[in-house]
Amino acid sequence: LVVATALSAGLVLPRAASPSAGLVRPAHAATHRAAVVAEAAAVVASEVVTPSEFPAGNLRSLAEYDEMYARSVADPSAFWADIADSFHWERRFDEVVDANFDSTKGKVFSSWFSGGTTNLCYNALDRHVAAGKGDQVAFYHESNEEGEELPAWTYAQALAEVQRLANALRGAGVKKGDRVTLFMPMVPQLALAMLACARIGAVHTVVFGGFSAEALASRIEDAASRVVITADGVMRGKKLVGLYEIADKAAGLVRGLEVETQIVLQRLPPDVSGVSLKPGRDVWWGDATAAADPECKVEWVGAEDPLFILYTSGSTGKPKGVLHSTGGYMVYAATTTKYVFDLQPGDVYFCTADCGWITGHSYVTYGPLLNGASQLVFEGVPSYPDAGRLWRMVDKYTIAQLYTAPTAIRALMREGTGPLQGTSRSSLKLLGSVGEPINPEAWRWYYEEVGGSRCPIVDTWWQTETGGVMIVPLPIQGASMKPGCAMRPFFGVQPAVINEQGEEKEGACEGLLAIKAAWPSTIRDVFGDYERYQQTYFPIPGFYLTGEPPRRGGDGCRRDEDGHYWITGRVDDVINVSGHRIGTAEVESAVVLHPNVAEAAVVGYPHPVKGEGIYIYVTLNEGVHESDELRKALVMQCRSEIGAFAAPDVVHWAPSLPKTRSGKIMRRILRKIAASGKEVTADELGDTSTLADPPVVDQLIASHGIWL
Ligand code: WTA
User: Fold this and answer.
1) Which residues are catalytic?
2) Which of 202, 252, 268, 617 gives the lowest tally of CB atoms within 10 Å of its CB?
3) Interface predicted TM-score of the whole assembly (ipTM), two decimals
């Protein structure tokens, strides 16, 4: 599990650094969803926080936000056309938006800036270099090893490298529309590889470096990528992550096509990585770029041409390839970055997310570069060599905006304020949070201890599918915040709270979060499966849903009396482990692959650091006995099928699973038992009258889970 946490987007402390993490029984967990909501609700009335010193920035007042928001929904075309015109279009668009969220009126679609041609890479790099900003730093690169100085990348250097790499890709036969899979460590070159794809109109599909060979292979297969960009490996804390080895194994597992070329970035000394390339297929990044032409012409692409595919988990089935297109994504990623992080000239910005997830796409690679910002990329983990690492980096690079996840905040909070001492953090202007609900306790620690009660907390709610931040307390001088509340919609976003029948609720209410009009970076498709796209996200006429049927919604939501939005967590079978979105069905499929397993059910349970932990109920085949060995084998099975971050925290041997008479597993009961440990009483389980075999539940309560 150390690998899991170490790899998790640079967000989490490995277990070694917080010995009690994961050992805490749910009964003691401080961050149960319900508790988060109840705790948050309790502060609504009593606590409204106003940071002491936020300067006037890109938004000068709440009144300005109100005015812009009103304009953005009253006349989206005029609003977004104005903004889009600040980008380079090789050919200007003819129409700003055309969309349909109602499948009863025809195909669901969302089209922005049609008729326009542009290029993300051109707008992120060439445009700034042409404007004389070539010497400005695009990326500072902080090594895993504190004290090891690595060269920074200016915009001009980034552009030069991207052109060579793009030519190397073209040399490998990559053409517009072809998919290229990126399986890399969190180094600046990962962002450069994304931009190289964009430059030639290729579609990148980044796979997080914590995935296993099997998971990588299935994504390569689904995207039909013949070219993979990877690295020899990377040190994360004390752990060596052998990316090449995994990519090489994955290439061998891919069916139906062949990985013809692998470009391999050398990040480690050869004696450490031990990598020897496969002749004919593999080439070192350095050799490929050295041999390539330094100039690479931009491929102008249509605004609706695809930019990238990013796989994400849902309640059912295999991960979906979320497809984003060019023009709308560009405009929305850039605009949200500008206002959410209040970027100003001279700021150094730091997002700890990995480009393997959407946060790294929109708020490392695209948003900041489109705004011409300087940012820090950190390849290590916040706990190495100790829990003061992040704070020392903030001082070293004079970070103005820090964007991280609640799971990281909770892990660091456990270490107390000691690691903060000796750092000033006076450069910080605002603090961001993403990926899961932030519990008020963590919110307060972040706000008071890290930011000294000076910095707004921008708690950004959004999803892989939304492409950019949707609901957020925008940083505005004098504006107050409610701890744990995502507050207001971003420009152009029209949230709705609906019930399970799909009826919109009015005023202060609670229900499922949905969005009722297209925004520029709306998900365009599920790669290769339009039907699934329409059925998953648009089953209710007129709404984009945040999760899938049958629950008809992913995120629960409450709108308070002031019209502010509180995200209360997933209501479907997706769990959020250290900010990683995992489908319980995926973990179940991994577990049942074991020949001794008859059946498995997976649920999330409250975990004090990770937000949610993975709890698996396993029914073994007749005659097979429970054993430590078998338990370890099941954990290994999850690691090898998905990745170390999907390894279960608790295994519960279940004589059988509670089912309805029609054979459906009653997950509600399983969640309840997992959340309360064995102290749960039959009364607490709620209505069990539909159970086919009631004693099953008593057996489950009498037995109990084994915490790993
Ligand atoms: C959850 C990550 C509460 C939510 C950007 C969503 C949040 C899922 C927040 C998407 C937040 C993300 N408050 N919950 N500020 N941000 N979530 O696709 O359940 O990896 O549906 O995108 O994370 O996860 P994804």
Assistant:
1) 572
2) 252
3) 0.99
